[in-house]
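I hope you will forgive my troubling you with a question about protein structure. The matter concerns a single protein, recorded as an amino acid sequence and a row of backbone structure tokens. Please examine both parts with care and let me know of anything in them that strikes you as inconsistent. Thank you for your consideration; the sequence and its tokens are set out here:
***
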Amino acid sequence: MPDLFSAGASALGYLYQARYALFLLLRGGRENPDSAVTVEGLDDVAFDHQGDPVELIQTKHHLKREATLTDKHSDLWKTLRVWVERLNSGAVRTDRTVLTLLTTATAPAGSAAACLRPEESGTRNVEEARSLLLDAAGTSKTTDGSLRKAFRAFTSLDADAQARLLSAVRVLDDAPSIDDARERILSDLDLFVRPDHKTAFANRVEGWWFDRVIASLTGSGDRSVSYSDLRSYITELRDRFTEEDLPADFPNVVELSEQELPADQRLFIEQLRLVAAHEGSIRRAISDYWRAFQQRSQWVADGLLFDDELEVYETSLQDEWERYFDDLRYRLGDSRDGDEIAREGWALFHHIDTKVSKPIRPKFKDPYVQRGTYHILANGMRVGWHRDFLDRLEAIVERAGARAT
């Protein structure tokens, strides 16, 4: 039995708005590069040109494909009510703005919705649609208060205003579902990347898009997203899906405490403490470690790495470390001065952390992957900063094992 209080359908409707807006901008921007889209502005989705709305789109997503858009259907009438209010307030002008109802439901033959399809459908008849709507409003016995308000809103217009409103309306029924919209987005983005990378590419485009929509809705970003912004992001992302580069999905510093890491992923922190690293450096190290760990996992999941690429990369970093570590051991010799050993170890870490540049691919310049991979190697005791890190860490691991036992 369905949960009558479930928010799933509503949430899906909002996601549908956002996803379909991306699809529409991808398609519409090619014909009109100056176009921009607003989600949940004047309408569910609005196309703007130089700041003026040129098309308002109400989206209606139904989980059941057999939904039917009859003359008394609430989707149709509640949409008309929204547009009547926009018309009465002066927010839109029917001679300048197209009003589109995009729905996954189907308009039956001869229905008002079918009569409001675009001209190319061959079924458009505005006057017939007006007559059918007036008849539906006059004969309905519904007790739904919002539906009755929608009837009154439309019938309160005079005949000319009703005709002008409906002349601007376009019903696009049998629209793609939220999953179908995703497939169309994948198809539109297919030209930018190799076929086996298109899902990973589309995931990042959608991620960027949803971030922009959220920023718009919360007021922390621009109200509209332009096609030029979308195109610029896609172009920049495309340039990272090459044999010489990779997408950077975790560029921002994260705030994590040591306790938020699993116990077996904290040994690199002990490595830093052996050389008296200050807490600020440890916080940055935790951020680099976590981001590199997540990034590497994401690349693997998306199939973006060559065979054994991570292993080869780790080996090259370890080889680079060995050169400096051998020099450190030579300079320290058999010194037993703990402060001196710690200072030299800190200098080694600081040099590798800030001076060494060995990106995983030639054009990948985001340093968190290299820095975090060094911490991953330190966590596996394949590299270290203190001259005697192996002896010191083995003692730490033994004590931890004893406590666990």
Residues 258-404 form one domain.
